[in-house]
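Batch manifest line 412
LIGAND: pyridoxal-5'-phosphate
JOB: complex structure
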Amino acid sequence: MSIFSPLSPPQRLLMGPGPTNTHPRILRAMAADMLGQFDPEMTDYMNQTMELYRRLFETKNQWTFLIDGSARAGIEAALTSLLEEGDKILILNNGRFGLLLIEIAERLNATIQAIDLPWGEIASLEQIEAAMLSFRPKVFACVHGDTSTTMLQPLEGIGAICQRLNIISYVDATATLGGMPICTDKWGIDIISAGLQKSMSGPPGSAPMTISERAAHYIASRSHTEKGIANATDHQGTRSRIRSNYFDLAMIMSYWSEQRLNHHTEATSMLYAAREAALILLEEGLEHVYRRHKLASSALRAGLKAMGLKLFGQEEHTMDNVTGIIIPEAVDDQTVRTAMRNLFEIEIGAAFGPLKGKIWRIGTMGYNAQKHKILHTLLALEAVLRHATSFSPSEGKALKAALQVYEKGVPQ
Ligand SMILES: *Cc1c(COP(=O)(O)O)cnc(C)c1O
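JOB STATUS: finished
ARTIFACT:
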């Protein structure tokens, strides 16, 4: 007799802001057996993964690899490896994940200045440049698509300003990689990190990252290899040691190089997952992938509006893979989400901070950015609103409006 029954989670449709349902090919890849860490097949898979993610991040950066851990492992590795005590960092703070950047920088005893904006707003290039000119930070950090607000921060031009002012730039693109274009080289951003559980259709637990030559050179100046694995010939940096061993990018990069420093044991199943996730998207073709997301979110938004609901945020700056919906007056947030789950096995997202109880967030991410899943979600929401709340959605209009978007397509 066993203590608990065998694992058998319900088959929910995860239409929140992540995690999303995992692509079946990725689940199969994760069922493959382990390999030794320095097995040639294993290191080949690591090299292939680097190559695949260079294409996703649209970069020539040699240093394009995985950090083991959920998306914030990538964020923490980047900031920990960049910031020495007292270093100046400028952070764009307009949502939950901007606040996370501040929190991590605080733990590192950095000197922080924030560009504070209300949740739902984005910063102009002029605003960012002015703050850089007055504060003169060593590092600038911001979020590309913040799922907490559903807004997309435009990144064009930021890299060029940072290079001119000798600032290292970091961007959290967790929520956008695989759903919207990430043009690392064109934007000139130094470090970008992401996650698997949003538009990459994978499970949480791996953080793809790309690092420019310039940033890699700086990180090497903080390289202090762990004693038990160091060789006499290892390069040792002149700057202070990175304060985390696990997130020491200098050592992680040696591990992902021909040097194959024995830092951590690569999370083999997550490597398989990340490799398969990237392969699936590249086989589909990135342009098609991005169009599929645009179409899914446009159809969802058209359906929601046709039902009589109002959307959150500036329309021209919303992400293509998550939509904020203003919860109508006298409608209870939790009642609706619970009914969606209990009656229809569909999860939609609540919100945080100033938006808690004010908006729902519906994701159209990765494997779930498909027509039938959008229609299921719209019709379930219409039914729940009608039967469990005092809000009366216009009957049957959502389906029609969403289908119309799919028939007409979206401008490219
Ligand atoms: C979802 C999300 C994360 C998630 O981080 P985890 O550590 O994987 O939970 C980070 N940043 C952004 C912008 C996100 O949308």
